[in-house]
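Contributing new records

If you add data, match the layout below exactly. Sequence lines come first and carry their own label; structure lines follow with theirs. Keep one chain per record. Anything else will be rejected by the validation script.
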Amino acid sequence: MYKKIKVLVIEDHEDLRYLTVHHLRSIGVVPFEADGVPSTLELLRSGLVPHLILLDLKLSGSRGEDLFGLIKAMLGCRDTKIVIMSAGGRLRDRAASLGADGWIQKPAGRAQIQSEVLRQLKEQVTAAL
């Protein structure tokens, strides 16, 4: 049902990225992976236009907030939904101040990740079918 739905996971910790991608595959979306700014920009510049991005705010060597701005400034990604993922405090406030579509507090389990992704995508699922 969700085979045309593309979700980009931007997470620098390989084990967390792997688990998140696994959780996404189990609900049938097509996950893409990036471990930081360079790999994210490479994917987006190569033509990937995800329906949703899960963005870790604490990326090694860069700030997720800066990447959020870069993504939103890119043609084709302005309407892409972005959900912030972080273990830091006041996550709801930080997500709201950035203009994020949602947030996931880490560590997050399968149910929390899948629930938020499905909540964010419910409008887009119908259009992609």
